[in-house]
Specification:
- The chain has a domain of 159 residues: Adenylosuccinate Synthetase, Chain A, domain 1, CATH 3.40.440.
- Helices cover 27% and strands 20% of the residues.
- The two termini are 27 Å apart.
- The chain is built from 9 helices and 16 strands.
- The protein is an alpha/beta fold.
- It is globular and about 60 Å long.
- The strands form 4 sheets. A 10-stranded mixed beta sheet has the order 9-7-5-2-10-1-11-14-15-16, covered by helices on one side. Strands 3-4 form a two-stranded antiparallel sheet.
Length: 358
């Protein structure tokens, strides 16, 4: 009987989905890890002994040795993918990546749009072209994973059309951008596989992106991501594959964070310790990582919202960064009941502990 384990962030992202996915990957060595939203903007950190990798274009089971799969709801940028593949190979990670034919491809012109468009900068961007890619796909100027293995003249014409769509008129500049982009495409052995490929695995680990509070339908507009960050997309794949055994792993830090502009229910300075491995550091697009006290009512809101999309057999909670503050996590403040509550006391998934069945 096939099983699905779905990892979902309850906040604005950066909750610890990478370490949770690694925890599940170690327990299920024959599984595949599936990204079902977002794309190359992810920064999911996994640490195994003396190895560390920030997963963006690969799922967070790759360092542990598991293959990756990106669904049609994801984006990928061939140049970013090629560069990360080189890093993973040096660390003996698994670089096997299968991509749904209708996954969306980010081009250099989408990255330029994300970084230069005034509205994007005001509303928030990681600068990786994801939002621009998703927005472009509402127009006729689409580019899918299947196009990467189309005849080269056809692919080039589509890429030039996207450049013109964004107002690139300098043909020499377009050619320069395309040289590097096409070089990366040629260096990758593209495995374009629809959902039937997943039938060969008994356990599927679904790794969410960002958090429920950034969902394009449910976040506080306009500071949202261009994706469904709930369980919606993962549950649809489970239904396609007739998987009924579904276990949820909802993830939160022991305090609130937000990397980027937008509303938080509370924001204040928090003195942290043991956070030397923090991935979310200052960058010119998202600025500093913001902090606040954990809002239990907001956690309950996110949990009840996600329940509208998924019907799991088991519901677990993962609380990360428990070693970074003196504040104790208080499960009694939540209305939602869980089968198991796990706690993370270091950047390593081996240090997960069961706090309580609750």
């Amino acid at each position: 009987m096939k099983k699905a384990k779905i990892v979902i962030g309850l906040g604005f992202g950066d909750e610890g989905k990478g370490i949770t996915t690694d925890f599940l990957s170690e327990q299920n060595p024959g599984a595949i890890v599936i990204r079902f939203s977002g794309g190359q903007q992810a920064a999911h950190t996994v640490m195994i002994e003396n190895k560390k990798h920030i997963h963006s274009s690969f799922a967070s089971g790759a360092l542990r040795g598991l293959p990756s799969y990106f669904t049609e709801h994801c984006t990928t940028h061939p140049t970013f993918l090629f560069n990360e593949r080189e890093e993973l190979e040096e660390k003996n990670g698994n670089t096997e990546l299968h991509i749904h034919p209708l996954a969306k491809i980010t081009t250099p012109f989408d990255v330029w749009q994300n970084r230069k468009n005034v509205k994007n900068l005001e509303h928030g961007t990681c600068g990786k072209g994801v939002g621009a890619t998703m927005k472009r796909h509402e127009s006729p100027y689409k580019l899918f994973a299947i196009d990467l293995i189309a005849p080269r003249p056809m692919l080039i014409e589509k890429l030039k059309a996207i450049a013109y769509f964004y107002g690139f008129l300098d043909s020499s500049k377009i050619e320069q951008e395309l040289d590097d982009f096409l070089h990366a495409i040629d260096k990758i052995d593209w495995k374009i596989s629809d959902y039937n490929f997943l039938k060969s695995f008994d356990t599927l680990i679904f790794e969410g992106s960002q958090g429920i509070l950034l969902d394009m339908d449910h976040g506080v507009f306009p500071n949202v991501t261009y994706a469904n960050t709930t369980s919606k997309n993962a549950f649809e794949v489970c239904k396609f594959l007739n998987i009924d055994d579904i276990e949820m792993f909802y993830v939160t830090r022991n305090y609130a964070t937000r990397h980027g502009s937008g509303w938080m229910s509370s924001e204040n300075e928090i003195v942290l310790k043991n956070n030397e491995e923090e991935t979310c550091v200052f960058n010119e697009y998202q600025k500093e990582l913001r902090f606040g006290d954990l809002d239990y009512n907001l956690l309950d809101y996110a949990l009840q919202l996600d329940a509208a999309y998924v019907s799991p057999n088991k519901k677990n909670l993962v609380v990360t960064c428990l070693d970074q503050t003196e504040t104790a996590f208080k499960p009694e403040n939540l209305q939602t009941k869980f089968d198991v509550i796990y706690g993370s006391y270091s950047p390593y998934s081996k240090d997960f502990r069961i706090l309580s069945p609750f």
